[in-house]
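Suppose a classmate hands you a notebook page containing two proteins, each written out with its sequence and a corresponding row of structure tokens. How would you begin to make sense of it? This section walks through that situation. The first entry is reproduced here exactly as it would appear on such a page.
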Amino acid sequence: MNQHGDVRADDSRPQRPANATGMHQILLALAATVAVTITAAGQSATTVPDGMPVKVKLLQFISSETSQPGEVVRFEVFEDVVVKNLVVISRHTPVVGSIGNAKAYRSSTRSWWPHSSPGKLVFTITETRSVDGRVIRLVGPIVGSNQSKDDSSIRWHHEGEVFDAIVVASPNRNSY
């Protein structure tokens, strides 16, 4: 119907008042806000428990010959960490570690008794972040599960090696 009261063929459907469309959009926005709030409330009750295993992948080559104590070592989460059917730490999330001790292989033939000192390489896996950005403290690599069988004089680890770590308590209790 036009302003003069005449009905045209394209005016066959009922007209909504102009403010009804705005009200509809407000209701949709309110419903979305409530849904997000409910989801966030469900996540806030989820805690990444102490002792939760986390597999991490080394992203660089490290060696007893070239690494230095205190040097940062880069890893990434190898597979999603799930608690109560909720991903709490995503795959490919960066993980930080550091070199604790690196001692190069040494061989000495200066005396009549040849002497050698095997290389030593110690590193730690220390932290990552949850899906909501909170710091998750880790300890690793887990001794025993990641030790190689060979006893070579030079110690190293290749890019792509997977190590086991576990979640440890932090001041924020790893919860969100």
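The notebook's second entry, a different protein, reads as follows.
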Amino acid sequence: MLKNRNDDEFPQIPEIGSNRAIEKNDSLVWDEFRAGNESAFIQIYQDYFDKLYGYGMRIVRNEDLVKDAIQDMFIDLRKNRSHLGNTTSIKFYLFKCIKRKIIKEEGKWIGKLENLDPSYYFQFEYSHEQHLIDQQINEEKQKKINLAIENLSPRKKEIIYYFYHEGLSYLQIQELMGLDNVKSARNLIYKALNLLKVALQASS
């Protein structure tokens, strides 16, 4: 159990991976795309371009690089679609692809350690518009949360983003961040949330 989820300082979120209807729809659209359906490809492109752009800009501060990487990724996917594997989450599949491509373009390797190269960048803010969080949170508390997030390491920012903002499962987070196992993902989330809790208590 993630005890911090029920604390006043943190929003409650639904259980990860419980939306089977979305997974089923993703599987159907992805299979149609792999089978050569051009409408399915256009749907995926239109549905995810902006989300991939926002995600990419959290990884690297280079708008041109991110846009080029997204375009190149979709070209590669379209060209090789008959050889692609199946997926129940298009977003997760595309996140893996674009993160790998951006890191390759930057010539960097994030690795599995907490002590990352200081040039590694990951940024996001807690916003009341996000559908996974409590929309009734007041502006003052939102500012405190964002200040606490800003003081986290890039690695901890990244895992909080995946868990709260994108609603990814522990298994997906483990794979996306290159962690050794699911337990490592859980532990990193616990550490990040505990640091946020301490920072918020100190600012009260």
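A careful reader of the second entry would note: The first helix runs from residue 20 to 34.
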